[in-house]
């Protein structure tokens, strides 16, 4: 495999609004990221992905861009970004931005001009269609719920928005739009950005046959994914984007691509000459131990997860490099998703952190993950701030849930859990800001915070550091990235085990992802314990003995 600079990535995602406020307005900013570079270097990461910092009315917290060339004043200015890039480089850290080009904000001047004159030049920048019989052009449901179409006042026209109505979809069929995007991407690369996480990129191409389909919900709409996700022909746009921009700068790009991508096109996406460097592996995202499906069946859930993780490895083999992650700004915290509440402690948290950390691929952490930040359930729907939360809440009510049931469902699934301010210390507002933050701090910050864990050699943070340094070590870096992957103990319930092998080096990774101990036969000769979240002896009567939620990594011969 051709080696690339980004292959050694230990990435860290930052949600700037909630990372660190330095100017006392209760909102995180770019200077706040710069202020913590030493902390991030201490953890061992070497790539940062910044969630959107472009100018935005923030209806979707930055995923609605109203000026692609400006930084939103709430985050600072371009000089702050330049300073961040330079200081990060000094510490061997590269900065990636978020590239949101499936849609703009409805306040983007292009869209404002499109509304004024839908038949004019800017009308062609978006997807605008005639209504049918006084209704939307078709009955697609938006990804956030409700119709995917919004009526344009005083006309019989509607515009398409796969996300909120404040995020009109761009018309990628229009070459003028594409060129505008490419030029903008290159301007950021010229400024010194080393790449992008590319938002909602599966949706660029729509199937313009726009069929009305039988509804699949009480709202009368239908999930239209087959018509707007990885539709045939999307590759033409993606390859043009890559050739005209990323490739010229040797940029690192991580595509947000749903894992329903057909196996036969994977190489086109992430092969040596693929549209992107890598894509996220979302295969764990739907698992939640408190969902109706898995309640009281944690071991069965782990086994189902194992199946998916391993199947994904099979599919990806020889085709490219996956980006393994567990948390992001759209998902509840991982420990809440995979561990039953009564079992949450250092052992289960550290084991969970390792569940996909040593699989082939690169890894990305999310802010707060290494200190084990938790979900923050709310007592009333008014305490939430994200439009998608409210749309889902209304949908639940429409589908017959009571208000209490709908709130419980929101508390289980909302992406807002991941967006609470970063817990730096046990001082006011957890050290995130000197003012009342834009979003409530999780009250558990006195127990869970960075300062306390940084001082403690036995903390979760210290364990994440150990995992990172093992992955980055001269001795094993190549093995974890490029080595063969072979499942081990595959039929053992609640155990996710595999061998990683490169040439004559072999490492066995075992996650005992359950609340009871497990005795396993030794598959070879153990040379060394490379990492364990327990100190107890590993061998007992010639077998490997794993404690509840033990993560054990062994070098074997
Ligand atoms: C995916 C992003 O991760 C999410 O936060 C956003 O709301 C949608 N794309 C729309 O841009």
Architecture overview:
With 557 residues, this protein is α/β, with parallel strands linked by helices. It is built from 16 helices and 23 strands. It has two domains: 5-103 and 175-379 and 423-468, TIM Barrel (Alpha-Beta Barrel), CATH 3.20.20.80; 483-556, Sandwich (Immunoglobulin-like). The chain has helices at residues 30-35, 37-43, 78-90, 109-116, 175-191, 225-228, 234-249, 266-270, 298-316, 334-338, 346-353, 387-398, 403-413, 450-455, 460-472, 477-482, and strands spanning 10-14, 47-50, 54-55, 67-71, 94-99, 128-130, 140-141, 149-152, 157-160, 195-198, 222-223, 252-255, 278-280, 321-325, 362-366, 484-488, 495-502, 505-512, 518-521, 526-532, 539-540, 543-546, 551-556. The strands form six sheets. An eight-stranded parallel barrel has the order 1-2-5-10-12-13-14-15. α5 (175-191) runs parallel beside α7 (234-249) and α12 (387-398) packs across α13 (403-413). It is globular, with a radius of gyration of 24 Å. The site of 1-deoxynojirimycin has 9 residues, from loops. 1-deoxynojirimycin binds next to loops.
């Amino acid at each position: 495999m051709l080696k690339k600079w980004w292959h050694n990535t230990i990435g860290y995602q930052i949600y700037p609004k909630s990372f660190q406020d330095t100017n006392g307005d209760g909102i995180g900013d770019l200077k706040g990221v710069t202020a913590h570079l030493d902390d991030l270097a201490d953890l061992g990461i070497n790539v940062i992905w910044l969630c959107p910092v472009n100018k935005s009315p923030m209806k979707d917290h930055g995923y609605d861009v109203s000026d692609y060339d400006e930084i939103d004043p709430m985050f600072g200015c371009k000089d702050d970004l330049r300073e961040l890039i330079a200081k990060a480089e000094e510490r061997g850290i590269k900065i990636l931005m978020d590239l949101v080009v499936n849609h703009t904000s409805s306040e983007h001047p292009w869209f404002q001009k499109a509304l004024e004159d839908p038949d004019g030049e800017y009308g062609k920048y978006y997807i605008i269609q005639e209504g049918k019989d006084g209704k939307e052009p078709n009955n697609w449901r938006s990804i956030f719920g409700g119709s995917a179409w919004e009526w344009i006042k005083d006309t019989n026209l509607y515009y398409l928005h796969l996300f909120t109505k404040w995020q009109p979809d761009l018309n990628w069929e229009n070459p003028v739009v594409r060129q505008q995007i490419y030029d903008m991407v290159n301007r950021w690369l010229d400024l010194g950005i080393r790449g992008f996480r590319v938002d909602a990129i599966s949706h660029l191409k729509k199937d313009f046959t726009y069929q009305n389909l039988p509804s699949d919900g009480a709202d009368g709409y239908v999930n239209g994914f087959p018509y707007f996700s990885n539709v045939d022909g999307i590759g033409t746009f993606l390859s043009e984007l890559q050739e005209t921009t990323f490739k010229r700068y040797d940029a690192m790009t991580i595509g947000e691509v749903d894992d329903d991508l057909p196996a036969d096109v994977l190489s086109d996406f992430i092969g040596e000459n693929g549209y992107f460097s890598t894509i996220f592996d979302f295969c764990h995202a739907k698992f939640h131990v408190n969902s109706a499906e898995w309640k009281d069946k944690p071991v069965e859930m782990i086994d189902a997860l194992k199946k998916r993780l391993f199947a994904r490895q099979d599919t990806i083999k020889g085709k490219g490099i996956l980006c393994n992650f567990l948390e992001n700004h759209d998902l509840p915290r991982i420990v809440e998703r995979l561990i039953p509440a009564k079992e949450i402690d250092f052992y289960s948290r550290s084991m969970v952190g390792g569940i996909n950390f040593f699989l082939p691929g690169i890894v990305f952490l999310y802010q707060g993950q290494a200190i084990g930040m938790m979900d923050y359930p709310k007592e009333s729907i008014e305490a939430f701030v994200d439009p998608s939360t409210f749309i889902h809440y209304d949908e639940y009510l429409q589908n017959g849930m009571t208000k209490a049931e709908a709130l419980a469902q929101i508390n289980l699934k909302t992406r807002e859990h991941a967006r609470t301010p970063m817990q730096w210390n046990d001082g006011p507002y957890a050290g995130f800001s000197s003012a009342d933050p834009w979003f409530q701090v999780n009250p558990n910050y006195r127990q869970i915070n960075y300062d306390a864990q940084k001082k403690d050699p036995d903390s979760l943070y210290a364990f994440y550091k150990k995992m990172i340094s093992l992955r980055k070590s001269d001795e094993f870096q190549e093995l974890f990235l490029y080595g063969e992957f072979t499942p081990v103990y595959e039929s053992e319930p609640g155990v996710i085990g595999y061998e990683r092998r490169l040439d004559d080096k072999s490492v066995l990774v075992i996650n005992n992802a359950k609340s009871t101990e497990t005795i396993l036969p030794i598959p070879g000769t153990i040379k060394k314990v490379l990492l364990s979240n327990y100190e107890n002896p590993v061998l007992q009567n010639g077998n490997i003995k794993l404690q509840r939620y033990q993560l054990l990594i062994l070098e074997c011969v």
